[in-house]
């Protein structure tokens, strides 16, 4: 049903609906319970484990005692549990707001799933903890909800694995270069960054967000306040921002549309003359190491 609604409702109607709903005096957690404005899918135990394991393996499966940082954990702090099960000493989860579910009951299915996995740390002791705070202390996780300021508080060269899952596209355009610089500062010289980026609009899986001028799109009262903001950086611009920050960047995965989902004539002038490769890239994975030049 959700997939059908997502497909059938026009992008412009979604913008109107989101702008209206976001201005109602309803707490954000109430929208989350209704499945609206939900930042991510990490409350699903299988999904949370698969996401972490994918990034962990991409980083060479760091051994016991590694440290991690997840950028944008969204509505769940599942990574703190999964990373500990995979041998982490501790880590940091940094988001731009306090979105995470705090009821420990929501994490018990994940603990049960991890307890069934072979070759990971025994997590059964976690099931007896009475609060999320106690759980986070046990697994050595620090949670920050202050975005870029939270990154700046992390010690330099202290993290072995930095990762994000469809988050970098949501970093505000004006904060992106500083975010890239902070990720570079935080990552250990032999550490790895693994980042899955979704370059589609977050309206209809297309490029409808490129229809708007920058002055309209970046208004605080438009996309950012209404829950459909992306920074609209295209593939090469995002890659180049990380290279400028000092990373060596490889791209093990790059997903492309066969043809542009909307015509260039419907795009704002800022995007109309970009390369086909930039505009046809719908998703990619960036793996980042420290540039040793």
What is the structure about, briefly put?
The protein is α/β, with parallel strands linked by helices and 293 residues long.
Description of the structure:
This protein has 293 residues and is an alpha/beta fold. It has one domain: 3-Layer(aba) Sandwich (Rossmann fold). The chain is built from 14 helices and seven strands. Strands 3-2-1-4-5-7-6 form a seven-stranded mixed β-sheet. Helix 2 crosses helix 11. The N and C termini lie far apart (52 Å). The model has no long low-confidence stretch (mean pLDDT 89).
Which fold name is given in CATH as the topology? Rossmann fold
Structural class: alpha/beta
Low-confidence stretches: none
Q: Fraction of residues in helices?
A: 25-40%
Count of runs of 4 or more consecutive helical residues: 14
Shape: globular
Number of strands: 7
Oligomeric category: single chain
CATH class: Alpha Beta
How are the strands of the biggest sheet laid out side by side? 3-2-1-4-5-7-6
Radius of gyration: 19 Å
Tell me the fraction of residues in β-strands, as a range.
15-25%
Order of helices and strands: HHHHEHEHHEHEHEHHHEHHE
Characterize the largest beta sheet: strand count, sense, and whether it forms a barrel. Answer: 7 strands, mixed
